[in-house]
Amino acid sequence: IKRWWNEQAGDSGMDMVIKKALYWPDGRTRKCSDKEVVDHTREQMSLMLQALLDKYNEDHNLVGDLAYEFKDFLHYRSICEDYKWYKHFNFTTKTKDGTEDLFFAEVTEGTCDELVANCFCKIESNENGHCYGCINHGITDMKHPDKADAYSGGHLNVYLPFGGCRSRPNTWTGSKEDVTAEEARLRYIYGIQ
Fold first, then answer.
1. Residue ranges of the DUF3615 domain (predicted)?
2. In what order do the strands lie in the sheet with 100-109?
3. What is the per-residue pLDDT for 167?
4. What is the Cα–Cα distance from 100 to 69, expressed in whole angstroms?
């Protein structure tokens, strides 16, 4: 395998550090745009939801044309209550005959970092269970089961610590100018001109 950052004549040790910070061995830049991060995160969440859906199908003996398939990821919110994190999801499913349904899932981290589904259920589009965790953070379209004890998180009127996910937007596009600017920033930090 050819490595993008192979040492070349005249490269100092610090030049190699900068190359390794900027590029993967195959030559792709290490940084990525917000869109790439969002797409990757949605893909990972979709895979997790499909795995939970497979378990739901198995538990309810839904096979063949009756089995649910993941269709679309709709909403997601992380909620912190009493030092515990909850993740709420809405997504749609379909069956082979074209029937579409809306699902709600609440997932937490168990011991040893495994994910645990506290709630995983089909809901109606008119269900509107109350959840402070989603509402307080601007996710007003998230649908929750009407039965409040169906899910654990979101019942306390609290906000995420330190203001939640307010962060400066990532303007990285991966362009040559971005890479050049990042290299200049790293050279400045390490005192290399």
1. 50-145
2. 69-81, 84-94, 100-109, 115-123
3. 45
4. 9
CB atoms within 10 A of CB 119: 21
| pLDDT recorded at residue 14 | 77
Q: Classify 104 as helix, strand or coil.
A: strand
**Could you give the dihedral angle defined by the CA atoms of residues 117, 119, 120 and 126, in that order, rounded to the nearest 10 degrees?**
-150
Radius of gyration, CA atoms only, the chain: 22
Average pLDDT value for residue range 77-88: 87
Residue 45 and residue 70 in contact, taking contact as beta carbons nearer than 8 Å: no
Task: Please tell me the distance from the alpha carbon of residue 85 to that of residue 107, in angstroms, as a whole number.
Answer: 9
Give the type of residue at 147.
K
Domain locations in the chain?
A: 48-171
Contact 158, 80 (CB under 8 A): yes
Instruction: Write out the two tokens for 88.
Output: 């709420």
What average pLDDT does this structure show over 62-89? 90
Residue pair 73/46 in contact by the 8 Å Cβ criterion: yes
Query: Which two tokens mark 70?
Result: 């993941």
- Helix, strand, or coil here: 130? coil
State how far the Cα of 67 lies from the Cα of 89, in Å rounded to an integer.
20
Q: Phi first, then psi: what are they for 41, rounded to 5°?
A: -65, -45
